[in-house]
Structures are given as structure tokens and as C-alpha cells.
Design brief:
By secondary structure, the protein is α/β, with parallel strands linked by helices. It has two domains: 107 residues, Formyl transferase, N-terminal domain (Rossmann fold); 98 residues, Formyl transferase, N-terminal domain (Rossmann fold, 3-Layer(aba) Sandwich). The chain has six helices and nine strands; from the N terminus they run E-H-E-H-E-H-E-H-E-H-E-E-H-E-E. Strands 3-2-1-4-5-6-7 form a seven-stranded mixed beta sheet, sandwiched between helices. The radius of gyration is 17 Å and the shape is globular.
């Protein structure tokens, strides 16, 4: 069995994309996975520079200029990922929803990472929401994608302490450090065939070591 071919979608900086690219080159995914292509929906997003630096093909499909339906936009992405024969799709800071059609096309093999312990603090302002609520622990979650916001079955979570002095500028980087570890690990579990989805439950064969 060859390496699992990954397609990535990003809207911004792409630091999680970078961590996974490095894991594919020299880390835990070296013998297991390869990022075949990145799709970006925002002009000028730094994730495309990261792709260039890793010699990974990238395609810009500007969502701001798309006049059709979400399904028509998603079909453009499907066509590209199918061209590269991608089996696993990763959302690495993609600031749009994907359609049911897109999810079904890839048989649910789509992963996202969120900077909070889902189901708490969904959406775009996870750090601010966690701090405003006064939680003592936050963290990061890798989950399968379904049509609802930050809702799909959870694969891995990592707790990160929240201190009284924290702001989003201090909490964010501390969580991001773990995002860069647990997303490659979730992909490794997928590549090894150790993930089994039963309803909302993701059962994992064996122990998971981070």
C-alpha cells in the first residue's frame, strides 16, 4: 500500500499546513502520507507561500469572486482533488463551510482542527470565548467534518491550561503548539487504519501517544 494522498484547503497563514507538510517530509508521516495539492480561497494568503516552499502544487480559487452556489464552488475543489487522487482532505484554517455533496464525495474522510475543546466554544472566536467564560482549561480538537459548524466526530483532543493572566495573544500560541502535534497524529492514525467511526464515536485501535 502506497502513501495516503492528502488534499489541503486553507484560507490564511497555514501554520497547521506547514506542520503536516514537515511531518510528511521528515516526521511521523514520512512513510505514510503525502500532501498532493493545496487549495486556497483567499488572494495573498501566506499558506500558498508555504506550499511553494515545500514544492507542493497549489491552486487559488477565490471564494469572494464566486457567483454560483456552494456546491458549484465545492465541485471546483472536487475536480482538483480527484485529479490528484486525494483520499484524505484536511481543512487547515479554511474559513468556509463545505457542502454535504463535498463530504459525501470523499466518504467523510475530511478532517478539521479547532482551537478549543469541542463541543465548547465553536466558531471563529474560540480563544476570546474561552477566556470570557473563565474556563481553567482549553485546548485543541481534531475532528471529522460534517455539515454543521465544528460538530463532527472527535478524533483527538489535547487539554491546555488557561492562566488568570492569559489573553488570546498568550493562550493562542500555547494551543497552536499542540495543534501542530495532534493534527499529524490524527492523520497517522487514519493512515494506519486505526480510526473507526461509529455514530458520534471515533474508536481508535491501540494506545495513542502524543
Amino acid at each position: 500500500m502506497g502513501k495516503v494522498k492528502i488534499g489541503a484547503i486553507a484560507s490564511g497563514s497555514g501554520s497547521n499546513f506547514e506542520s503536516i507538510a514537515k511531518a510528511c517530509e521528515t516526521g511521523i508521516l514520512k512513510e505514510k502520507a503525502i500532501i498532493e495539492v493545496l487549495i486556497c480561497n483567499k488572494t495573498g494568503a501566506y499558506c500558498m507561500e508555504r506550499a511553494k516552499n515545500h514544492n507542493i502544487p497549489y491552486v487559488l480559487i477565490e471564494s469572494d469572486k464566486h457567483k454560483g452556489t456552494r456546491e458549484e464552488f465545492d465541485q471546483k475543489m472536487i475536480d482538483i482533488f480527484d485529479k490528484y487522487k486525494c483520499k484524505l482532505i484536511i481543512l487547515v484554517g479554511y474559513m468556509r463551510f463545505v457542502s454535504q455533496m463535498f463530504i459525501e464525495h470523499f466518504k467523510g474522510n475530511i478532517m478539521n482542527i479547532h482551537p478549543a475543546l469541542l463541543p465548547s466554544f465553536k466558531g471563529m472566536h474560540a480563544h476570546e470565548d474561552a477566556l470570557a467564560y473563565g474556563v481553567k482549561v482549553s485546548g485543541a480538537t481534531v475532528h471529522y467534518v460534517d455539515p454543521m459548524t465544528d460538530h463532527g466526530p472527535i478524533i483527538i483532543q489535547k487539554c491546555v491550561p488557561v492562566y488568570d493572566t492569559d489573553t488570546k495573544e498568550t493562550l493562542g500560541p500555547r494551543i497552536l503548539e499542540w495543534e501542530h502535534k495532534i493534527f499529524p497524529k490524527a492523520i497517522e492514525l487514519f493512515c494506519d487504519g486505526r480510526l473507526h467511526v461509529e455514530g458520534r464515536m471515533v474508536k481508535i485501535d491501540g494506545e495513542v501517544k502524543l
